Request: fold
Amino acid sequence: MNNSEILVKVENLSKKFCKDLKTSLWYGVKDLVSGVRGSSQERQLRPKEFWAVKDINFELRRGECLGLIGHNGAGKSTLLKILNGLINPDAGTVTIKGRVGALIELGAGFNPILTGRENIYNNGAILGFSRKEIDTKLHDIIAFAELEEFIDMPVQHYSSGMKVRLGFAVAAQMEPDVLIIDEVLAVGDMSFAMKSFNKISEILKNTAVIFVSHSMPFISRICNHVILLHKGEMLMNTGNVGEGIQAYFDRQSLSGKLNFKEDVICLNNANVFSGDLDNDGYIESDKNFKLKLNLSSNKEYKKVRVAILIYNMAQINVAILETRLISIKAESNQDFDFDFGVLNLSISAYFISVRFDSCIDEGNIQVLSNYINYKEFKVQGNDRLVFAPFYFKEKNDKTEV
Ligand SMILES: Nc1ncnc2c1ncn2[C@@H]1O[C@H](COP(=O)(O)OP(=O)(O)OP(=O)(O)O)[C@@H](O)[C@H]1O
Reply:
């Protein structure tokens, strides 16, 4: 088996849709009548049309797992549907070598009135397997999907997770050359997702995988290549998965500061910096994480602990920093300075939430105020872009070659 064999080749692929159903039907009739397919008009937009996928080019080899990422409406599912032959492109070509296993829409490819077992035979037949071949795989498919008890129940009575289990088990156990998986995997529970990732790693040496997800932890876990789509266009095609994920996050706006109980302790301002205050909002990866808070309150509060919760762009809480106990005077604006040392956060953007806890009574800590996603800051430095919260390098100057 040639590991670097190209299994998927996509050339100048474009697909347009129409925003309005009536107009779309009208264009459909016109195209049929004029036999427009193949003419130069396929590359032009008519009123109310837009490109869902525009001029996409890439190649995928056996052993590669491509993560297709992009925000809502970027064109990911449309591209997958073209690759799987469910819809025709308006321009460009797709060349796929070998058998394609796909898990695209929840329940798609299953006949709801047939049982799980009957659907396995149907799907296997569509993929080109004989009844005998499916017989030999049946046990493994049912066991992988953990559906022994329910395999003779009509699929229409399956839960969403059960449909995903069956769909993935069929697609992955049939030894496809190309495996296409849409967001659906996120519907299953985490233990099934992990089991699926292990299966993908296992078959990857013989397969090319295309995986769509909004979960960047999932993408970073299994993909060794990333394509970032935006409004149908390919913004990035990279083997540096961390870089691709960062570019995805750079296009994401996470607004939505939330303040709870803000009348208790007012957080008027927060500065996050490394060197001096002029560099507010920026932390050098190898320098101290410093924080200056400006606070006020109507009442005096003694023994207040400030908890700083750092969230990454996927909104995962990557660190909690707690301060010494402070006292807040009534009716005055006070500045407090904190230094948490070097945090070794990897290069990316982060948010802080700031929570004030009353610690008068050790066993009974009360939340006084909670400011969620109060401020964004960026970690910068010369190090590599990685999708992991922390990045460390060995402290050793000697290079062994
Ligand atoms: N059959 C269709 N008719 C008209 N427009 C469509 C059709 N299918 C998709 N679109 C449009 O094409 C664009 C791309 O949709 P697509 O489903 O490919 O995006 P996506 O990247 O998968 O998004 P999401 O992350 O929300 O699933 C969207 O603007 C969508 O409304």
Residues 17, 52, 70, 72-78 surround adenosine-5'-triphosphate (CB under 6 Å). The chain has two domains: 6-250, 258-380.
